Amino acid sequence: MMTVKPVKALNDNYIWVYVQGSDAVVVDPGEAAPILTYLQAHDLHLLTILLTHDHDDHTAGVAKVLDVYPEATVIGPQETERFNTKTVAPGDSFTLFDQEVSVFLTAGHTSGHISYFTNDMLFCGDALFSAGCGRVFTGDYQAQYDALETFNKLPDNTRVFAGHEYTETNLKFAQSLEEYPEAVDKALQEVSLLSSQAIPTLPSTIGQEKQINVFLRAETLDEFKALRDERDNF
């Protein structure tokens, strides 16, 4: 049986642990201690680390994790090459747990940001959040808009494993807009209850995001850019 579990790290990061039997794949270990504790507590063998992009809060734990699991492979984009055992590019695919993993370019937050899609699961780093998306640090709003279009084409039942717990703030931002999706109010009630109990609001689904994510619902590049600029100053 395959499962995916969140491990909280830093202030609001999630390190995702994809498990089959006693084997594990770890996504974006921004901090070593919590993921090492989790792996050891559950007697898991680390096979692979997946990296989505080159920001410290997603990569800073890699070296220490490899000290403990030196045989683990590291798969990532060109921008994380210094960590990688295997560098992948958009359009590539590879196999994990006998399942094909597809690599998508989801740039904008960084120039080489990628996401991984497998078995109706999306590991998207900072390219997509529940009710939000990452800041466009590159200034390339077209790239980020294209990434959102990629996500929009995925099946509605795709589970979204994003890199940060920003859902409540993102929904409050949506409520601050003059017009916002009807589903936001109910979603915020549910998310606020989860957050008050320190329960993760992730994973979401693409179907849910199509209802509540104002960035994913933006119909033009200009609309997306205006929303992103407002969110940056929220």
Automatic annotation (TrEMBL):
Keywords: Hydrolase, Metal-binding, Zinc. It is an enzyme of class 3 (hydrolase). Residues 12-164 form the Metallo-beta-lactamase domain. GO terms for biological process: methylglyoxal catabolic process to D-lactate via S-lactoyl-glutathione. Its EC number is 3.1.2.6. One of its GO terms (molecular function) is metal ion binding. Pathway: Secondary metabolite metabolism; methylglyoxal degradation; (R)-lactate from methylglyoxal: step 2/2. Binds 2 Zn(2+) ions per subunit. It catalyses: an S-(2-hydroxyacyl)glutathione + H2O = a 2-hydroxy carboxylate + glutathione + H(+). Zn(2+) 2 binds at D57, H58, D126, H164. Its cofactor is Zn(2+). Belongs to the metallo-beta-lactamase superfamily. Glyoxalase II family. HAMAP family: Glyoxalase_2. Monomer. Thiolesterase that catalyzes the hydrolysis of S-D-lactoyl-glutathione to form glutathione and D-lactic acid. This is Hydroxyacylglutathione hydrolase.
